[in-house]
Design a protein that fits this description.
Strand order of the largest sheet: 1-4-5
Structural class: alpha/beta
CATH architecture: 3-Layer(aba) Sandwich
Number of domains: 1
Shape: globular
Number of strands: 5
Oligomer: single chain
Strand content: 5-15%
CATH topology: Rossmann fold
Number of helices: 7
CATH class: Alpha Beta
Radius of gyration: 15 Å
Order of helices and strands: EHHEHHEHHEHE
């Protein structure tokens, strides 16, 4: 199972061809994983759309195809450790990305599908797949 990040979901909903092709390939591999942090980031974008009701429906439809993990205490512990390590190295990244990485690592998920290579490459034990 691979973890789907916000940037990937946005490209899928915008019908970006490489993202749609990758989603088709990922569908053949099995279920997809994400978390409540990504769901929040993804849904926020619907409210700025011209037809926000239709956009929200489309985004929720896509999210319904994904296993959405909660940000729980194990994820909080792992995220705190990741943040402390990044701070010590002087390599801080966005807070949401730290929470996403903490969720992944605490659940044993090693691969994230994202365009945000700059942030996630700083976190050990995370493999990045892009399109």
């Amino acid at each position: 199972m691979k973890f789907l990040d916000t940037s990937f979901l946005i490209d899928v909903i915008r019908k970006h061809a490489p993202a749609k092709i990758l989603l088709d390939d990922l569908d053949k591999e099995g279920p997809h994983i994400s978390n409540t942090i990504v769901a929040h980031e993804f849904l926020v974008g619907a409210f700025g759309a011209t037809n926000s009701e239709m956009e929200l429906k489309a985004r929720n439809n896509l999210l319904s195809r994904i296993i959405i993990l909660d940000f729980d205490l194990a994820a909080a512990n792992r995220s705190a450790l990741i943040e402390a390590d990044l701070r010590a190295k002087g390599e801080m990244i966005g807070g949401a990305d730290i929470l996403i990485a903490g969720t992944m690592i605490s659940r044993g998920i090693s691969t994230i599908v994202t365009k945000n290579t700059r942030h996630f490459e700083k976190i050990p034990h995370i493999n990045i797949q892009t399109w």
